[in-house]
Structure prediction request, 80 residues.
Amino acid sequence: MPHRWFNPPVYVKTERPGLRLGVNRVDAAAEELLKWSNRGPKWRLAAEACLSAMDGKMPGSDFRLLFEAAADEEEMLLPD
Prediction:
């Protein structure tokens, strides 16, 4: 599976307090989405879009916006 990149990265919280992760690939975003316990409507949109982005049917920049919105909704988003 090819890596689908987007820029700038979306910074999210990690399981380790005080450590943040800059996500800039669709496959890495998918891994993070699966770790989040809250799964609201924006999470569901990002999860569904992830498959399209991995298949090259959605530009990485469009997926990035959905992933960022999901991270914000789930209170996982951190400032740049």
